[in-house]
Amino acid sequence: MNNINLKQIREEVGYTQKELANFLGIKQQQYSRYETNTTKMAVATLLQILDICGYQFKIIENNQDSNLQKSKIRV
To answer: How far apart are CA 24 and CA 61, in angstroms?
Structure first.
């Protein structure tokens, strides 16, 4: 699977760590740990972050690869 750079995605849409943490209902410190990979996050949390930032994550049928695409619709 490709690595997903949460910091790059967050900065691309113009959110601070604190803003994104507020959307998720967590503290900024916890979100920072997600970005630096110092703590694991649930897949549901990752999908929520991607959705907030306007991305869709699709797993290819053969389970060999993944695809991260910017959505045309912003939430």
So the answer is: 29
Show contacts of 60-66: CB within 8 Å, 24+ apart: 65/1, 65/2, 66/1, 66/2
What is d(CA 74, CA 50) in angstroms, rounded to the nearest whole number? 11
Q: Which domains does the chain have, with CATH numbers?
A: 6-70 (1.10.260.40)
- Tens-place pLDDT, residues 36-71: 999 999 989 999 999 999 987 766 555 555 555 555
Residue 73 vs residues 33, 39, 52, 53, 61: alpha-carbon distances, Å: 28, 30, 11, 10, 24
